[in-house]
């Protein structure tokens, strides 16, 4: 199956929040993305609501249910009880758990699965019991995948930020591509599904897909939103879908 694209709407929401105005509309841009062929929408509602607001979640849930019933909603965040209540209220198809501190500007590392085993085991079991797929944010390290699988999660999402940071260094890019490939292969060998995300672009996504043809989904926000300033949201979604083909 080809790699699917989930469009992260955080950057759209952050631009909206610069003014006390209803535009750009998160719902409208989510609709444009899904009309252009995106498989789903991703949001990361942080406690300070600096981009996605809690009130955005039911709006996007309704958009998918009423207009795009084959699409998926992916909510990511740190598994505090407040976050879990948001998830249970809005019933995403997928929950991606990330080890973010609330003060972080963005996700910048994966879970220490051994250190957080008790927390993750309980949350994964709880969410899967509610019928949701659970993905865990993971560094590109083959050695940690056994501990990831032990949590009972369905998928891991490879943190691709360091790979994105090699945009001007092809030698470093190749080294990170190899590291992510080995990590993804280790996850797949354990029966885990594979997602990826962070700082992926039209340029660096095809080599990743070619190295990891088992990738199920990429979640892309900042790079796609920046691309949309030039090509429009629909045009950028189509560009990234083409990139997902490798």
Description:
By secondary structure, the chain is α/β, with parallel strands linked by helices. It has a single domain, classed as TIM Barrel. It has 10 helices and 8 strands. Strands 1-2-3-4-5-6-7-8 form an 8-stranded parallel barrel, surrounded by 5 helices. Strand 5, helix 6 and strand 6 form a beta-alpha-beta unit. Helix 2 packs parallel to helix 3. The longest helix is centred in the C-terminal third of the chain and has 23 residues. The chain is globular, with a radius of gyration of 17 Å. The chain starts with a strand and ends with a helix. It is found in: Cytoplasm. One of its GO terms (cellular component) is cytosol. Catalyzes the complicated ring closure reaction between the two acyclic compounds 1-deoxy-D-xylulose-5-phosphate (DXP) and 3-amino-2-oxopropyl phosphate (1-amino-acetone-3-phosphate or AAP) to form pyridoxine 5'-phosphate (PNP) and inorganic phosphate. Homooctamer; tetramer of dimers. Its main location: cytoplasm.
Largest sheet, strands/sense/barrel: 8 strands, parallel, barrel
Number of helices: 10
User: Which CATH top level class fits?
Assistant: Alpha Beta
The CATH homologous superfamily is termed Aldolase class I
What's the CATH architecture name?
Alpha-Beta Barrel
What percentage of the residues does DSSP assign to strands (E)? 15-25%
Please bin the fraction of helical residues. Answer: 40-55%
**What is the N-to-C succession of helices and strands?**
EHHEHEHEHEHEHHEHEH
Average pLDDT reading: 96
Low-confidence stretches: none
Cα-based radius of gyration, to the nearest Å:
17 Å
- Quaternary organisation: single chain
Q: How many β-strand stretches?
A: 8
